[in-house]
Batch of 2 targets.
Target 1
Amino acid sequence: MNSSIGFVTKKGVCLDLDYIIKESAEKLANYLLKKYRLEGFLLIKSSPKHYHLVFNRYTSWNQALRIVFSVYKAVEWGIWGARKGELTLRISEKKGKSIPQILKSVGKTNKLIKDYLEIYKDYLEVYHPELKIPSIIMESQL
Amino acid sequence: MIRVKVYGTVRGEKRIIRRGKAFAIKRDGKGRFKSFRKWSPKQPIKRQQYKEIYVEGRTGKDVIRETQKVVDFYDWMKAPSVECDPYPRIGEWLETWVNQ
């Protein structure tokens, strides 16, 4: 009986990539960034060989789905999001997994990335006050 | 408006027999009675149920504090299980982030 807390959005692009290495995730992020002009991305490590990507630009729901389903690794996860009408990324710990770690941010961070970081920061402050807030959040425009 | 989702599995139903009839009973995380229904083989019990609750608010902190109330009410969230790695302390965490 364990629960998780997730960041939910329908106005931007998020990806949940399973069984992938860090270099491939970065390469994919850079490719999507240039192809769809997404302004910036945030690379997050949720567990070994599992990465999350959050892109900055606000897009329509249709555009977001098109981008998610163009990535083979994210199709299975995208089906659940399409069914519910929104995309969810885990923020809290889960059975067997710790809190996702933010590795890198590239480009702008003033739109969807800012929303994500706000909730991430508040989650840390409320549930884990003993942990220090990472410097990436302090440097971004929060 | 900021929106956050609390999701996970909740304890499902259990079958009991009273006075020659079968019932499916639901209890919450602390074992308190919640509800019951008549059991039938065409409506079997579900031992685990997936549940999602959306929490909305104006600021992130309000939302996260409400999630705490939701989690306490449903008694879902527990301390990290033994299977996951222990949390690194403050200095270790920053070092791993800087080095990656």
Note: The helical segments of chain B are 60-74, 90-99.
Target 2
Amino acid sequence: MSPRRVLPDAIGSFIIAAMFPAFATMIARVVPLLLVASACLIVARLARDRLARRNEAAGRTVFVAIVAATAALAIFVLIQTSLLMMARIVGRQNAARLDRWYSAYTTMHGRVTPVIAFDWAMALMMQRRWNDARARLMQTGTPSAKGVRYNADSVLLIGETFFYSGDMRRAEQALVVARRTTHPYVRFYLLGRIAAARGDTSRALEFLAMSLQSNGRFFPAFYHRQRLLMTRGEFERARTEMNTTRGEVDTQRNQQWKLLEQALATQAVPPSVEFYVIEV
Amino acid sequence: MSSRFKLRVEDVLTLITFSALLIFARTRASLTLLSLDEGRYWELSFIMFPAALLVFIASARYAFDVRAELNATVLQVTSVLRDWMPFALFLSVYESFRSGVWAVILGPDRDAQLLAIDRWMLGETPSITMQRFISPLLTNMFILAYFLHLVLPGVLAIALYRRDLLLFRRFLLAVFISGVIGSSGYIAVPAVGPGIAYAPLFTVSFESTPADPLLGMMDLARAARDVFPSLHVAVSSIVLWYAARAGRKWLLGMLPLVIANWIATMYLRYHYFIDVIAGWACAALAIALTALLLEIERRITSGAREREAAAAAHPQT
């Protein structure tokens, strides 16, 4: 594809994908700043006029001081906002940079809202920093009369952080609660993995089947289900399911598919592969 | 001139919505419903930004121009806040209310019925048909058009505010009444849209990976089950209607952006064609209701003025 064709698309994509979230962030923060600055400017003029009746110089000094303080506040808020805007611009696909920008933002005393906390948590999960991600996810809750409430997707992610850091008990507790997640196939997949780790292969197979029922193309669930079937010696069943699924998978480039085929051919158990599922 | 505060239609609507939210929050034992998270706040800010800018300009003029007088500045600032605030309050209360109500009363999704209507009218829902035209350039263009839904009302509002206060009020009132009508539609006909409900029918991706974070951001700005009617179409139709009243240049400037917005709602797989038709109907109803409510307000205020004049002419002894 020629640069003449690629470059406009790339520039357009950057402008739209990066600049508009940053623009929206700026607008949201500039509005209260404008109102506060307006109040300060009016107060500055009133103070100058009142003091100038007795002492012109004092009036000018107070005016300059208030205007300078207002300008300093505006600069502080704009720096904070620009750090947040940079985080919006780099996006989750640059997880390490996103984490640095959010860290800089909190260093400048920026408030971590539930929206920011969720975005930051996703970036930390992409870096496999499960404990840090969980700490951020705990900030995504909203207060209610019955305490802090978390949406089901946040609870699912909290469960994932426990799972990937090896705390199966807490992972299961969180996943059981996340019934209304918008990604049920992830929930069932992790519950299946937990059941398998506990030795309950029948229950594990049920959960993995439910995951595939929710999303027939979710390969992690498919891989581990096939592995479990082969662990139980059910190679024919595994072969049948693989033949059914063959058209859905890029069998040439999917390395895990090749592992399953090799295992089938040699009647061995394929290795346990860890898939890091971060889709919410 | 009477110095009494005159109640306007938008004030009454805000009070009604606020009261309804309070009652609902009380019955749910949750006053935390009266909150607005950042995901909603930036949408509100697009309306408040013009007002905040006008207030800042007036304040800066007063601060740095020795000839500027306090009374005139206060009058200007309070006029701006008085004219814009009811809409901002209404929007913030309304957003809080909507998300709270939905958690309680949404019924089963109606995507199947909406898809059936599209297929009866056109043979296939346009989102699926449009797959053959997908390209990164078109995707970015339609994302931009879809996003402008949040920018165009603010831009037109500030232009109308500077030339005709009544037209400004008509415009914003129509936008918010369309929101109320639209939300009633969401509750009556909940649906998630073709992109989510019928994802397996879409065999072509958008090929525009860098644009995906923006789609995610816009999804945050959209409420759940907000498909029928399309408020993107309703609000942009209202923008077009009042742009025409602002002048030919405004109409010609807005027309391509609005048409692109209409197409974008289907290209981006958010809406069925029937949602677009319902959006047009919602806009027409909102504009008509606005005219009716403002006419009622005019009659009440002119009746009050006549009574005042009569009382002044014939004071009781």
Note: Chain A has a mean pLDDT of 88.
